[in-house]
UniProtKB/TrEMBL annotation:
It comes from Candidatus Phaeomarinibacter ectocarpi. The lineage of its organism: Bacteria, Pseudomonadati, Pseudomonadota, Alphaproteobacteria, Hyphomicrobiales. The keyword Transmembrane helix does not apply. InterPro entries: Acyl-CoA_Oxase/DH_mid-dom_sf (IPR046373), AcylCo_DH-like_C (IPR036250), AcylCo_DH/oxidase_C (IPR009075), AcylCoA_DH/ox_N (IPR013786), AcylCoA_DH/ox_N_sf (IPR037069), AcylCoA_DH/oxidase_NM_dom_sf (IPR009100). This is Acyl-CoA dehydrogenase family protein. Gene3D superfamilies: Acyl-CoA dehydrogenase/oxidase, N-terminal domain (1.10.540.10), Butyryl-CoA Dehydrogenase, subunit A, domain 2 (2.40.110.10), Butyryl-CoA Dehydrogenase, subunit A, domain 3 (1.20.140.10). Residues 220-357 form the Acyl-CoA dehydrogenase/oxidase C-terminal domain. PANTHER family: ACYL-COA DEHYDROGENASE, ACYL-COA DEHYDROGENASE FADE28.
């Protein structure tokens, strides 16, 4: 079985890398970090013009109509560049949910706008708890009106629409949950920006007070639909983390070769060699899991839940470790505001919680393996 990407996919990856190297330099990331701007609007429009925002959106709705493998290679380059844009919220989550479960009218209304960069979407799941469950979801949809509070919502302060996990039944079971689609620019919606460790990816608290909303998909299918979207997003987030891990390793290696101490490159010292070697091992372990996840996602394999969880765990741990060791390799300068090492440390922490803490994904692996062994 060949898990490598095709020549066309590698060419797309190279194009994305060149575009981001030109349009998303470290100084561009720092500009967003040090300003009140929630994201890089120029980069966002550039990604739209390149067609990257519509990679997996069908051509009938203004997208490129490509597959998940193409989106995986783009995601890796976005992670390498630490791109300050709301692409993951709009593309991996919100538009993916609409594309999978939306009506023709809902697809026509929002997918072309996402592909063109005209609209930003977000996925509102959590309600202030680390691991949302059917029992903890209190946001309700009744009579076409949405009420409740979601936090933290990635890119919720800049999004034009949201896919919201809501309660439509009277109980607390998974069958009482559904998905709702709401225009965030309409009545009954208030938002407040939430501070996080990575200001280049904004978050918000969204409060709904009788906001007009439509059901997305079938009533009662919200929990299973959310798991489908989460498994897809887990693989794509893992590729972003993979790119960030690679960039952190390259940054640490470059500094180790350039920095001299006591007349020698610091990279010649055993302690630094061990750091770089450990970073590389975790990177390659994560790469294997990511490729397995990409295969499962692109083929709609029954193994996707297990592969997605494996990719999520391995990539999260690899990125966290590489970002920390990158700072350590730089020594004292790595802790200063002027050092760019912080970009990857901040992003590693943020992505590590973006779809729920890694502990929850480890539990998923255990459950999947138990079910496999019991079969």
């Amino acid at each position: 079985m060949n898990f490598d990407f095709s020549d066309d996919q590698k060419l797309l990856k190279d194009q994305a890398a060149k575009f981001l190297a030109d349009k998303c330099k470290p100084e561009d990331v720092r500009k967003i970090l040090e300003s009140d701007a929630p994201y890089d609007k120029t980069l966002w429009q550039g990604l739209a013009e390149m067609g990257f925002l519509g990679t997996t959106i069908p051509e009938a709705y203004g997208g490129l109509g490509l597959g998940y493998l193409e989106l995986c290679v783009i995601a890796e380059e976005l992670g390498r560049a630490c791109a300050p844009v709301p692409l993951s919220s709009s593309v991996y989550l919100a538009s993916e949910a609409i594309n999978r479960f939306g009506s023709e009218e809902q697809k026509q209304a929002w997918l072309p706008k996402v592909a063109s960069g005209e609209a930003i979407g977000c996925f509102a799941f959590a309600e202030g708890v680390q691991a949302p469950t059917a029992r903890t979801i209190t946001t309700t949809l009744s009579g076409g009106k949405l009420s409740g509070t979601k936090l933290p919502v990635a890119d919720g302060d800049v999004a034009d629409f949201a896919v919201v996990v809501v309660k439509t039944g009277s109980g607390t079971s998974e069958g009482d949950l559904s998905l709702a689609l709401v225009d965030l620019t309409g009545a009954g919606v208030s938002r407040e920006t939430v501070s996080t460790i990575d200001p280049t990816r904004s978050h918000a608290t969204i409060t709904f007070d009788g906001a007009p909303a439509d059901l997305l998909g079938k009533e009662g299918d919200g929990w299973s639909a959310t798991q489908d979207v989460m498994n897809c997003a887990a693989v794509l987030f893992a590729f972003e983390q993979l790119g960030g891990t690679q960039a952190a390793l390259e940054m640490a290696k470059g500094y180790a070769l350039d920095r001299y101490a006591f007349g020698r490159q610091i990279g010649s010292y055993q302690a630094i060699k061990h750091k770089l070697a450990d970073m590389y091992v975790k990177l390659e372990l994560a790469r294997g899991h990511c490729y397995y996840g990409a295969w499962a996602l692109s083929t709609n394999s029954p193994e996707l839940p297990l592969a997605a969880a494996g990719a999520r765990v391995a990539a999260t741990e690899a990125f966290r470790f590489a970002a920390q060791e990158n700072i350590q390799t730089h020594g004292g300068i790595g802790y200063t505001w002027e050092a760019n090492t912080q970009f990857y440390y901040r992003r590693s922490k943020l992505l590590g919680l973006a779809l729920g803490a890694v502990g929850g994904w480890k539990e998923r692996i255990v459950r999947q393996l138990e079910q496999r062994n019991a079969a």
